[in-house]
Write a structure and sequence with these properties.
The protein has about 400 residues and is an alpha+beta fold. The chain has helices at about 1-15, 15-55, 85-90, 125-130, 145, 155-165, 210-215, 235-250, 265-305, 310-315, 320-360, 365-395, 395-400, and strands at about 60-65, 65-70, 70, 95-110, 115-125, 135-140, 150-155, 175, 180-190, 205, 225-230, 260-265. The protein folds into two domains: about 1-50 and about 270-400, no CATH class; about 80-255, no CATH class. The strands form two sheets. It has a six-stranded mixed barrel. The chain has a two-stranded antiparallel ribbon with strand order 2-3.
């Protein structure tokens, strides 16, 4: 068997330039597969990372998703989650460890001679636990602060930097939100970008009662954050939330919900759908390149059979069997394709980090994609090399020896 590979390698080395040009289609196709799959894998990992940063075992109840007059409204179109809904979730839903409503408003805030326009989120004292958000310094506000609508807040890293400068502890400082003085009691750790690409750290967290009574005047919430006690209980908590809110909102059987309950997995699937489409499109064009490369291999192998007709005739005349000739030419085709695949994998490993460095697109090369790419390249060698090898094996020794 080793002799077969040795002869095949010698045949490929006779014309290195021709062999390389033949492999070029395979190299381009395989490198495109590596880069395309790494882009999809990297984008998925980035999405999953951002969604995980929002909290562990998190479910989000969003108002909206209702139809009126044939028009369907989406998230936040019709805020209809109430304080009574919030209390019912706290009291009736099992297998949860934290729940917080969220009332949002945007406001101009000021500290000294600095000011900024930020999102102010009204939440409960359990919000940090639900979102797995730690404090860099200071303390969380308490349930008593929420009940009494106290003018206290937690400040995000980006907001703190814009108001007080880099690495300055803002705890204890007074800021004005719509001309109302609020005391900073906690400094949030940085979280980075959210699932929609927004800066999660450009934020103020305030007791929801303070937002509703002092800032926005809202009486209903746009969303609830609910944390299940384990990954296994998420589906059950989602079912309980849906049944409870349908009952409380008096939605009859067969009617659409006027809310949405989304898990982190559903959110991840939603954002990864585009990534999958992108990966499929890139793989499609890479597949075309591989087919073209395979046709190139078939063409060159047919030329090789024609050029080596007398050599084949001599081998058959001295006792080589047809299957030996078949194996020899098939080995050359597979070796040609496999070498192209190896070079394509190396090119993909080189291009993927460059794409991340210069285009900022996350890439992650997996062992699975490398194995798949190399396997595909070997299969192409077998498929497109079989016909030339079969043609060589079926040559008549007498006619082959007469060939000039």
């Amino acid at each position: 068997m080793f002799a077969v590979f040795k002869i095949a390698l010698r045949a490929l080395r006779r014309n290195i330039l021709r062999s390389f040009l033949t492999m070029l289609g395979i190299i381009v196709g395989i490198s495109a597969v590596i880069v395309g799959v790494s882009m999809g894998t990297g984008a998925k990992a980035e999405v999953d990372k951002r969604i995980a940063s929002m909290g562990q075992n998190l479910l989000t109840v969003m108002s909206g998703n209702m139809s009126r007059g044939g028009v369907r409204g989406g998230f936040g179109m019709a805020p209809n989650l109430t304080a009574a809904d919030y209390e019912a979730i706290r009291g009736e839903i099992s297998s949860i460890t934290a729940v917080s409503p969220e009332a949002r408003t945007s406001a101009q805030i000021a500290a000294g001679n600095q000011n900024s326009f930020v999102q102010v989120s009204g939440v409960s004292a359990e919000y940090l636990a639900a979102r797995s958000w730690n404090l860099r310094s200071g303390d969380n506000f308490s349930d008593a602060d929420v009940r009494n609508a106290m003018k206290v807040c937690l400040i995000g890293a980006t907001t703190s930097k814009s108001l007080f400068g880099e690495n300055v502890d803002p705890v204890g400082q007074i800021i004005r939100i719509k001309n109302a003085p609020f005391t900073i009691v906690g400094w949030l750790e940085a979280k980075g970008s959210g699932s929609f690409g927004q800066d999660q750290d450009d934020i103020l967290l305030v007791p929801y009662t303070s937002v509703m009574k002092r800032l926005s005047g809202d009486s209903k919430f746009r969303s609830f954050s609910v944390q299940a006690d384990s990954p296994d209980s998420i589906a059950d908590v989602q079912r309980q939330l849906t049944e409870l809110l349908r009952r409380r909102h008096q939605i009859p059987e067969g009617r659409d919900d006027d809310f949405m309950v989304r898990t982190q997995q559903e959110t991840s699937d939603f954002f990864n759908a585009n990534n999958r489409i992108m990966t499929i499109i890139i793989s499609y064009f890479a597949g075309i390149s591989l087919v073209v490369g395979g046709i190139g291999i078939m063409n060159i192998m047919l030329v090789s059979v024609t050029e080596r007709t007398r050599e084949i005739g001599i081998r058959l005349a001295v006792g080589a069997r047809s299957r030996d000739v078949l194996r020899q030419f098939l080995t050359e085709a597979v070796m040609l394709s496999a070498l192209g695949g190896a070079l394509g994998i190396a090119t993909g490993f080189w291009l993927a980090p460059l794409l991340t460095k210069f285009a900022g697109f996350p890439t992650l090369i997996s062992n699975r994609s490398v194995f798949m790419a190399f396997t595909v390249s070997a299969i192409i060698g077998v498929v497109f090399g079989f016909f030339p090898a079969l043609k060589a094996a079926r040559l008549d020794p007498i006619d082959a020896l007469r060939y000039e």
